[in-house]
Amino acid sequence: xxxxxRNPFQSTGIVKDLAFCNREREQRExxxxxxxxxxxxxxSHRRYGKTSLIFKVFSGLKNARGxxxxxxxxTTIDDxxxxxxxxxxxxxxxxxxxxxxxxxxxxxxxxxxxLDTLTGSPTxxxxxxxxxxxxxxxxxxxxxxxxxxxxxxxxxxxEFQEIADYGGDPFEKRLRSIIQQHTDxxxxxxxxQRHMITQMFRDSNRAFYMMAASYPLKRIEPNDYVHWIExxxxxxxxxISPSTIGDxxxxxxxxxxxxxxxxxxxxxxxxxxxxIIDGVERRIIxxxxxxxxxxxxxxxxxxxxxxxLVASSGGNNLFTADKLSMHGFRTASQLSTAVQxxxxxGLLDRNEDYKIYDPLFRRWLQQS
Length: 368
Description:
The chain contains 17 helices and nine strands.
């Protein structure tokens, strides 16, 4: 019996290699920004492939090197400094050279330099003194400047909106003033809390106003999915109809993570039928019930009512008297406040109508 190739789809983690679908235009444009030392505001919904795109772009750089700094879960300036130093330490593979740069540059921070047990590369663990934070911020960027002399750099801050919660306006202003001095480095400010991160860069009262070119990450086109998935099946000596791929993409509303997850489970099926696709959809929703429930429980009563209203109405003509009354709203302003809260949380999109951005979350709501 012919042995199938390894499942090329990924349902978790950073998507690489065969599992990465297209985004060729985005890769070209972001590389152009980097080549010209321009800053980028890269934002999308959660699980839209933003981080995977950053790694894909970095892996394809010829005349520059990428540094990825994950700020998710950071709560203090200390966390920022630690994650920053640890990330840029990989630029210097020789511990002796890194030790010299650190010794010459960092006077307000105590550091331990150890070798990573997996890669053998030196890693910095800083100890920041409370009264030296402003000076420490300048010094870690001075380390970046020294390391960037060897090669052009692109620095990606993922989930950059986190800094708004732990540094306040003074920290944002200080960080901007330092970043502005690094005109030969391209900074990518990435985030999945779209309302928060776009407000940071569009509000004229915020420190990072107009600091980067806005680059919203859009959905992958259905034809790109069809071409990519047909190609993966062809590599395995199999075929799959464009209409079957289209059915899955339509159910997922082009959501990259869900398309990956669907085909991860469909890959080992000898024949993909509508019944099998229905079953996969049910199982994916069942596995996410705990996550969906937690998200639901964190909402106010009016936000719950607003979500139910959007789910049942398709998101249009929400403010009619009968719809308000049917879903427990006494006034239109109550609904408006609830809807804005959901937009801020990233649960709702608004173009002409309102829409729950996660298609399976919406189906779970409709079934509840």
